[in-house]
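Q: Predict the bound structure with 0YR.
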Amino acid sequence: MKIKSVLPFILHVPVTDAQIADSTHTISHWGVVGAQIETEDGLTGYGFTGTHAHLPSDQLIARCIETCHAPLLVGENASDINRLWHKIAHNPALQWVGRAGITTLAHAAIDVALWDLKAKAAQQPLWKLLGGQVRDKVRAYNTDIGWLSIADDKLVEGAKRAVAQGFTGIKIKVGSTVGRDLRRLVAVRQAIGPDVTLAIDGNGKWDLPTCLRFCRAAQDFDVFWFEEPLWHDDVKGHAQLARATPIPVALGEQLYTPDAFSEFLNQQAIHWVQPDVTRMAGLTDVLRVCETAHAFRLPVAPHAGDMSQVHVHLSYAHPACEVLEYIPWIKDCFTDPAEVVDGYFRLPRLPGAGTSPTAAAWRQYRQATA
Ligand code: 0YR
Ligand code: MG
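A: Predicted complex:
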């Protein structure tokens, strides 16, 4: 398993509509910025981070993979995942410029590629390597019907369609105005009935008074969680909100480190823990957060930054992972797609982490790395 080469790649994949919007971003493509790691014995592993497909910043990540991280890996044994994680995370040359941000996103791609390689070498799906299946099925919730860019009537239609397809959970975006978002929440709850879990996601847009006002009116509609109600790093604000409302607080998709999660846990500012292997330094670091959350007896709902490939494996294998986000944009770019059947993610069968791109995606969506 000696590493021969580490090469970056960039794919830009169109989203469901021409454009989708949450409270803070309007995007037309999802960026898959990754590392392709080849071993001397002919195996290839793939890992990637997720972006909003802004080519100049994607190229910064690619360059970091190629010129900063790759030289630490070539010649090493790919199966030494922990040792290589520490080698990259504690590279003194990089620590000065980044314990978060682009250096971490680049690290995410590499760590996941190493897990993919390890599972391929063992000829097993990743969930087996993670200790085996702890649940029969992984419940999916659908986020793709709930964008702020979707008009009110279409939102209700989409929610009903998702339920008809078998989804037992959906999530809608909030963070426009309290009045509009409440109207949409109530309309969706009425359309789907009491048995489907309905979460909301503010993507960090509102301030505390706005969140409190919204929560007071929303608490009668059985909101499963309020995700990223406040600015991503605001521990104190989330703690105040969590004390003031019965609606559970969810967050984590923008947190880079286990220390950041620990702050929220210690301050009782979080109920649902949402780490992402494409945001943190890969699966290695997300596993630490899952263990910590589990020790706190809090559930994990991994964020779909990778549109779920690796998170499906994780969710089958880790007891803390209770539910998983479904956004279908990039699934068909992979040879073992994260498919939902009757509201539950299919158990992956192929060896690896589910991160190998198809030849068609490689041809169609590839961008220049420099
Ligand atoms: C678009 N999921 C999310 C998309 C989504 C974001 O900005 O990246 O809405 O990843 O918050 O929970
Ligand atoms: Mg979110």
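A: The longest strand covers residues 3-14.
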